[in-house]
Amino acid sequence: MKAQRPRGIGAYLAFFYPALMLGFFFVIPFATMVAVSFFHRQPGAFYIPAFELDNYRALATPLFSRVLVFSLLLGALCAALCVAAGLPFTYFITRLKRRFQVVWLVFLLAVLSLSEVIIGFSWSLLLSRTAGISNLLVRLGLMDHAVSWSPGLAALVLGLCYLAFPYTVLVLYPPLSRLDPALPEAARTLGASPLRTFFTVVVGTLRDAIVAAFIMVFVFTLGAYLLPQILGRPHHWTLSVLITDQAIYQSNMPQAAAMAIFFMGVSLALVGLTMVLGKRRRPAND
Amino acid sequence: MTRSLRNLYLTAVVCFLSGPLIVVTGVSLNARKRLFFPPDGFSLRWYIELLSEKAWLVPVRNSLTIASLSALIALSIALPLAYFLWRHRVFYARMLFALGLSPFILPPVITALGFLSFWVMIGFYGKMAATIISHAIFFVTLPLVTLSLGFESIDTEIVEAAETMGADARMVFRSVIFPMVRPYMVSGYAFAFVLSLNEYIVAYMVAGFTVETLPIKIFNSLRYGYTPVMAAVAVVFVLLAALIFGLIGRFGDLPKLLGAMNPEDR
Amino acid sequence: MPALTLENIEKRFGKVVAVRDVNIHLPDGRFVCFLGPSGCGKTTLLRLVAGLENPTRGRILLDGADITHTPAHRRNFGMVFQSLALFPHLSVAENITYSLKVRKVDRRERLRRAGELLELVQLPGLMDRHVGQLSGGQRQRVAIARALAIEPRLFLLDEPLSALDAKLREDMQLELRMLQQRLQITTILVTHDQREAMTMSDLVVVMGPDNRVHQMGTPLEIYRRPADTFVADFIGTSNLLEGVCSEAGEVTVAATRLAVTEVPGGISPGDAVTVSVRPESIHVLPGREPGPNRFCGRVSFIRDVGSSVEIFLDCGDFQIISMSTPKGRPQVAQGDEATAELPADACVVLKR
Fold it and tell me: Are residues C166 and C314 in the same domain?
């Protein structure tokens, strides 16, 4: 069998049904959102069709730009932490026997599938005064009295990293598991220490994959919506929260849509920039 | 030296990942309606409350309905598309495939907002069907990826062998292709199911006020204070996910599903 | 009447020509090898026969009937693939009887036939085994049994032995050949291994890198009377000496007159030719003894592999390799002067 042109209606059905579903329920919603971002908001009613840039002009507020910058910085920080911690971890598990790899993967998938609300709830408990670690430390005599570490920026970063860490590992897993085991071994026989081997050979050969993982984790953490509300204080709220607030509580769909599209544009631009930088650095270093 | 360093690191990661789970499990076993860790007494009453009180039972039922149906629809979209792409390798199928991957790559709030504006426009805002279809589209990426891996794992010579032995196209699909991708269908369904069960923002934006799913219910109750029932829900969710992924790991090739190489290639 | 006829077959993939202008007739009940280097189109030719590809031009006739456009699943052939292509989700018995199930043969008969076929390939009792649990040789046999299940009109094999190690491979070659002789089934085997082709087949079809058929004949004919320099060079080892046809029955090579028994038609005196001589036909004499059909030189290397001895004679512009049995080993050592004698009946004259 080789790739061949589809023949007959039946063959095309296998294309048209998914095309119809994705077109109707994904492309049209997306287009609707783009359209709505140009609509005119009608207080009381939802909006009326129009073509105006007011919603985009309204983005030029100190609040919006502060939240945008904060969201992006927070996402970049968490992505950097996750990739830095996840890279050696993923490397270790890919060198394990397959049987143990499966155990780790099941564990990671179970954590990955946890809802943000459950993660937020768990961490707020863990960092709380009555049921948290500080409680435990008091019992061990390491602290005088229990304290609450949540909400706060540190709690938020911790929670976001918890959310994104399994995802990071799963993004890094394919390239690392395909890394030729002879490469690190070759480095070892040439006299490099394990640590040096890791940084020169593993990190070096997988630079593209690492950049890609950073981008994916960055976008992933940008999407966090509940954690900032549970583990952060109001000034830690991210753009996702702001957009949802506009859409649901202020009933300002056009404004929310404009924010979402602007947000998407900025993240795509950053993704593109990172990729360009990642590429350009390559020849100089290799 | 490096070995112990490695084990120390792995242990630290286990602690980080399981810490919240341990605390939540402990809290869910508290005897009194206070959040204490280590637990104050031992009781399963919060689990019983989860399964008996209507306030929790309705969201449980909603979540299960949405997850099972949306995963089914996602699979029904992914299966023909992955098959068509594998069989015909035409560029427009590749484009559609890329489209199927994008809901998962965009920040979810954007996709969620798109759904919201769409359902409002066609008058389905707040209906469970809207949540189901939105989740199906949102998670179509997962069965799409697992199924395309499944189809790629079928050597073209296997299909040709069936042809030379007298099987026509329908027979080849029924007796060779379908049985060979079935494990991938199961895991694609399971991924979509588990993630739908835990999804918040899309469900909230599309029908948050009328169709309460478990994550929405937990977040709503968080506002009025903590109760150990939430911890019980969290524990049930983790166990359910671990069970489902454990079964895939036991009966399927989990490393391969997640993008590792074949064991023979090693 | 020939069992299978390929008429003016040509196959193109886009601009690439994979098979060019093939015209062959394969007689019934024979074991035929398609032999050639990689990329010569032999596998494509087999796939055309199987119906897995459609020829760009030409016709395929089976017992006189045109099957050029019959789809693979209606040809009733049996094929063993290079990867074997066993169905990983089925047991051994289910693999073997797949073609019977497709043809709606009932279960009892299928099981009976599976037992019979496993007996045939010497794997009795493996029916319920999973194909993943089989060894390389066992998988091979299952694939063969599966292809033979419907007693196919044609039995096609696409380099199925290439993955086996040398010893097992030779056993399987022998076994396959005996099986074919027992069943009297018309068989086509694709291989790039000339030894395999020579030991197994009644007929060899040699294809070249220009994607054409260069020669078709019995292994002996092809070895003794290669049709051109490509075949002479590709099959076995050959001394290829460049010369000029001087007159009927003689060729001049490096100022030495070489008597030959036959000059093929179409070559006239003055034409440039190549003379092909097999190493085992060449006698080596110690010392410098010039004469007709003789070349003098110095022994540059002796390769003694136990069962035979090869002597490399450096004759200035060219080299002559001779091969002899250990018994008839000439009394020469490396560095000695020696003379090679080329019998007239061993010299095959080829157009250049």
Answer: no
